[in-house]
Write a structure and sequence with these properties.
Oligomer: single chain
Number of domains: 3
Bound molecules: flavin-adenine dinucleotide
CATH superfamily of the largest domain: FAD/NAD(P)-binding domain
Strand content: 15-25%
Number of helices: 8
Largest sheet: 9 strands, mixed
Distance between the termini: 49 Å
Shape: globular
Number of strands: 19
Order of helices and strands: EEEHEEHEHEHEEHEEEEHEEEHEEEH
Helix content: 10-25%
Length: 410
């Protein structure tokens, strides 16, 4: 594998000028919005953050038409939504919180509906494919550990079971053409899949606009003031009013949540992705670290680093990821790297989402997670209707941020 382009930066340092003032971007032709006596635009719901979480929730609220606004920062933002790997993934998730497995499976099941609605309303095919997915284990030891971990996961009380096949080398080779001779095996789950996440983000935005909602880039929210009838939002491009707000600002939620009596202790976790040139189709289904896109390129992903707000690419990591990918599929050794990038995941301390409604200001909701592609359908079809109804049901209780305050037993 050879790199075609010097796109790396220093490791773990905040790139200079990263957070300069937002550029002014066009406001959508949103039709008429309400205007309060102060002359400020006013909305029934303002979703703060136009990444995958905010856009999926706003999509679920699109019947509000002009009474819906998405307020976003613009091109200076840290946006996991534009740098992710595109998996819709179920297997292996939910250790320590079985409810999360149910939530993830629900979203995977509702993804075909989301994809169909986006095609109909935005005329964008998000390249959904759910042929199942594979986790590859390079060594026998990895395979044994993976098998034990999945058994422990499934044995949790309240776990919504699904089938995972443990594949020895021969079984894996039947499913993955060209898998390397030293690979020990893997696990297969029929619920897994992938999509084109950039088309997903574009389609969600397009469908929101088409329904009459407005997307306001350059509107980074600096301050939220709750009042009797809702919330005043001070943004870089003016002040707005909203009856309800959804904090879906990714890493920005940490600063916004306390303004409305919530908390969102999230931190960045850097992931790097490598894109190889187009090669003849060889992967019929995604592996959780290697997938072939609808356009034929091959993506390699899933590194994890705690580096603060540093989203610079590190060639050492790119090298390690490439080496492992070549062990899995030796024929990739001759494919050229055309692009590589890093992006920041939005992680809570236990890796699970935070969904909560403010007790002090009940019109304010927070939503944040680190699997925003997988959960897009659940956000559109379960979280958004709860916001519209004005209350999160009991099933969201496990995701409240108060779980981070439970003292650990010595
Ligand atoms: C390398 C990598 C690989 C990944 N792979 C997968 C995968 O395969 N499958 C999967 O399901 N998930 C994956 N994810 C995670 C997924 O991308 C994220 O869960 C999802 O993008 C999070 O969406 P978000 O909207 O919360 O945050 P973001 O996408 O980061 O968006 C946050 C938005 O909020 C805006 N914002 C911030 N502060 C403010 C403010 N004060 N006012 C207004 N707007 C604000 C920003 O401008 C930004 O647009 C991956 C992530 C990374 C980094």
């Amino acid at each position: 594998m050879s790199a075609a382009g010097p796109s790396q930066g220093a490791n773990c340092s905040l790139p200079e000028g990263r957070r300069e003032a937002p550029r002014v971007q066009p406001v959508s032709a949103a039709g008429s919005v309400g205007v309060v006596a102060s002359g400020r635009p006013s909305f029934e719901v303002a979703v703060i953050g136009g990444g995958l979480v905010g856009a999926a929730i706003a999509f679920g609220l699109r019947s509000l038409g002009p009474k819906l606004a998405v307020l976003d920062e613009g091109d200076v933002a840290f946006r996991a939504a534009r740098g992710n790997f595109g998996l819709i993934w179920v297997q292996g998730k939910g250790m320590g919180l079985p409810a999360y497995t149910t939530w993830t499976q629900r979203s995977a099941h509702e993804w075909p509906r989301l994809s169909a609605e986006l095609l109909r309303e935005a005329a964008i095919d998000v390249a959904l494919a759910q042929p199942g997915g594979i986790h590859v284990c390079v060594t026998q030891d990895e395979l044994a550990r993976r098998t034990r971990a999945l058994a422990t996961l499934q044995a949790q009380p309240g776990f919504k079971r699904y089938d995972v096949d443990v594949l020895d080398r021969a079984a894996l080779a039947r499913r993955l053409r060209g898998v390397g001779p030293e690979i020990a095996g893997g696990t297969y789950c029929a619920l897994d899949g992938h999509c084109n996440p950039l088309k997903l983000l574009r389609a969600l935005h397009a469908a929101i606009l088409r329904a009459g909602g407005s997307y306001r880039a350059g509107h980074g929210v600096a301050r939220i003031t709750p009042h009797r009838n809702g919330f005043t939002l001070e943004t870089a491009l003016g002040t707005l009013e909203a009856e309800k707000i959804v904090l879906a600002a990714g890493l920005g939620n940490a600063a916004l949540a306390p303004m409305v009596g919530l908390e969102a202790p999230v931190r960045p976790n850097k992931g790097q992705v490598i894109a190889l040139e187009r090669v003849p189709r060889f992967l019929a289904l995604p592996v959780d670290t290697i997938r072939q896109t609808d356009e034929g390129t091959v993506l390699i992903g899933d590194s994890q680093q705690d580096c603060g707000l540093d989203d610079a690419l590190g060639l050492d990591i790119v090298g390690a990821m490439s080496a492992r990918a070549i062990r899995v599929f030796p024929m990739l050794a001759s494919a050229r790297i055309v692009r590589a990038w890093a992006a920041l995941r939005v992680m809570s301390a236990d890796g699970f989402p935070i969904y909560e409604q403010s007790a002090a200001h009940p019109g304010a909701f927070v939503a944040t997670c680190h699997s925003g592609v997988t959960l897009a359908a659940a956000h559109a079809y379960a979280f958004a209707p709860a916001v519209a109804a004005g209350a999160l049901p009991e099933s969201f209780k496990p995701y409240a941020a108060r779980r981070f305050h439970v003292p650990t037993i010595a």
